[in-house]
Amino acid sequence: MAKTGDDVSDKQKAATSLIVEQLVQSGIKLVASLPDDWIAPLIDAVDKDDRFKHVPVNREESAIGLCSGAYFGGIPSLALMGASGLTTCVYAITKINYSYHIPVFIFATLRGVIGDPRPHHISNGLYLTKLLDSISLPFLLVEERKTIERIPAAFKHCQAMNRPEVVIFSEAVLLGEA
Amino acid sequence: MLDLRDCFKYFASRQGDGVVITSAGVTSGTWWRTTHDMDQAFYLGASMSMISMFGAGIAMGAPKLPVWVFMGDGAFVMNPGMLMVERDLNLPNLKHFLVSNRVYNATGAVPLANAKT
Question: Which of B51, B60, B89 has its CB closest to that of A73?
């Protein structure tokens, strides 16, 4: 079961609310998501918030496709996913968004780093940020609570540059412990 | 067998104000050769299997605009789960057409898996 409602600590609820408010400030209206357990409370919060249209998608590339089309439909959007999902999106991002200069705003998780006990995320710890660097995909690393407030600036930059941009959250920030 | 160019001529004659999105290979090439349209068509060639999601995003933002997506079966088999999302979205202005030639036409007309059965 995903961590939702009463399963989530007050600190995590506060961190989730702060992130949601940054999305509102950014003007985000559409969120396309595929889960990672770290962002399950955020997905739940977005789903229950009438200020967003939440679309659960079948795979992360579909979120990229949907949000890219939404750009032409005039809907500010977010593709919300885990680190592993983001690594599967290299084709879609480089082909759709780079070829046609379509901005897409992405949230992902900083999996596989020190503190993550899941051994199957070792590849994300080793390669995620290096992979993004290798395709010149800018990212904002959110490892402290105060950095959450830079989300609207990151969204604005993404739109101004007509390029994809990623915000990557540490587990401690998502838990409200950093 | 239905000739694709004749088929596209028919669609183009009924397109009205709507927009068309085509995937890589035969759908983009044939729509272009048939219509030479650069105003109401988006040739999303570099997008294996993503055009219906792309079209859904446009259709959500412009609910009165008819959005037709023409997807080859090579693209379709790469992401059939998109149909689950399309069903959830239930967008009345989005139409998803499948062009079936049982090959990956954009990459050398190599047969799809299970194409011969």
Answer: B60
Q: Is residue A1 part of a domain?
A: no
Please give the ipTM for the structure prediction: 0.94
Reported for A136-142, long-range contacts at CB under 8 A and 24+ positions apart, including other chains, are A137/A93, A137/A164, A137/A165, A137/A166, A138/A163, A138/A165, A138/A166, A139/A165, A139/A166, A139/A167, A139/A168, A140/A165, A140/A166, A140/A167, A140/A168, A141/A110, A141/A168, A141/A170, A142/A167, A142/A168, A142/A169, A142/A170, A142/A173
Q: Domains of chain B, with CATH numbers?
A: 18-102 (3.40.50.970)
Strands (E), A46-143: 53-56, 77-80, 105-109, 139-142
Specify the residue for token string 């950014």: A26
Q: Do A58 and B88 touch (CB under 8 A)?
A: no
**Which residue intervals of B14-101 are DSSP H helices?**
26-35, 51-61, 73-78, 82-89
| Within a domain: A2 | no
Q: What is the pLDDT of residues B52-69, one digit of tens each?
A: 999 999 999 999 999 999
Cβ A152 vs Cβ A22: under 8 Å: yes
Mutate to test the interface with B, among A31, A33, A58 (most CBs of B within 10 A): A58
Cβ-Cβ pairs closer than 8 A, A with B, add up to 88
**Residue A1: its pLDDT value, please?**
45
Which of B60, B61, B79 shows the shortest C-beta gap to A62? Answer: B79
A168 touching B (Cβ < 8 Å)? no
Residue A27 domain boundaries: 8-174
Q: What is the pLDDT of residue A64?
A: 98
Which of chain B's residues have a Cβ under 8 Å away from the Cβ of A53?
A: 60
**pLDDT band, residue B101 (cuts 50/70/90):** confident
Cβ distance A55 to B44 less than 8 Å, yes or no, reads no
